[in-house]
Amino acid sequence: MAKIIDGKAVSGQIKEELKAKAAEWKEKGIEITLAVIQVGKDAASSVYVGNKKKACAYIGIRSLAYELEEETTQEELLALIDELNGRKDVNGILVQLPLPAHIDESKVISAIDPQKDVDGFHPQSVGALCTGQAGFVSCTPAGIIQLLKRSGIEIAGKECVVIGRSNIVGKPMALLLLWENGTVTVAHSKTENLKEVARRADILIVAVGKPQMITREYVKEGAVVIDVGIHRKEDNKLCGDVDYDDVMSVCSAITPVPGGVGPMTIAMLMNNCVESIRLQS
Ligand code: NDP
């Protein structure tokens, strides 16, 4: 029977550690502050923003909420970011994605001061990750590394296959696994013989954005399977990119959805907020 990698428990440990660190900073007179900007009222985004605010409150991070109208112009949003960049009492700036179609996401991300880029999406943060310099790392892949390490799963020397090459998950994931001395393959929609490629993996990370696409035919006996996907099914239940019940019988360990990668993403955002103080001092 495969081991279930409990992201809720591991993220809980991390949050306790961060709570203690935030309290230490508070004792020194520093209140860590995260500014969260949401444009429009996308329902899923509102849930994510709400969860982030809750996590801040739990850890002892002050959160400033900016709920802007759907019609907000790019210039108005950039002006707000500029103001927050300049504020000494703001340590992290997060713009909830996706943004309305009339706003250029990459311009907005690039406008955030890299020292406050707690999502780790700024080109400078990505470059720092690539070259091994200090900077913020995208929260979902950083959370997956923590999940593997804290579950006692060795990465060094292992065949790691990442399915998906997005800027926020697949690419930074591949880089982080490389820094951990994994042997990394990145697969995507143009990959030939995907099943064969995926079956090479000792550690298979799936971020394809396709509900339950990955069945046991993609998984080597004994592999560790990390499911990044999150989808709501017709019956309103959540599922991942992996067919959990099917893959369970061949893998050695697997993350559930919900309760796997999701809670780790928020925990790592909180980690980046706490770390921002060191980066800025
Ligand atoms: P994107 O849609 O940006 O990227 C999907 C990637 O999968 C692309 O690189 C695409 O390839 C590849 N892909 C799509 N179809 C196939 C296929 N049939 N075979 C092989 N590769 C394929 O998604 P994200 O990276 O943003 O997110 C992935 C999933 O993770 C989503 O379900 C998302 O909701 C979830 N997610 C969960 C988070 C969490 O905290 N749990 C955080 C972030 C995302 P190509 O580049 O060639 O198009």
Summary keywords:
16% strand; 11 strands; 281 residues; three-stranded parallel β-sheet; six-stranded parallel β-sheet; alpha/beta; binds NADPH dihydro-nicotinamide-adenine-dinucleotide phosphate
Notes on the protein architecture:
This protein is of the alpha/beta class. It contains ten helices and eleven strands. It has helices at residues 7-27, 43-59, 74-86, 105-111, 123-131, 139-150, 170-179, 194-198, 244-248, 261-280; strands spanning 3-4, 33-39, 62-68, 92-95, 159-163, 183-187, 203-206, 224-227, 231-232, 238-239, 253-254. The strands form three sheets. A six-stranded parallel beta sheet has the order 1-11-8-7-5-6. A three-stranded parallel beta sheet has the order 3-2-4, with helices on both faces. Strands 9-10 form a two-stranded antiparallel sheet. β2, α2 (43-59) and β3 form a beta-alpha-beta unit. α6 packs across α10 (261-280). The chain is globular and about 50 Å long. It starts with a strand and ends with a helix. The model has no long low-confidence stretch (mean pLDDT 97). Bound molecules: NADPH dihydro-nicotinamide-adenine-dinucleotide phosphate.
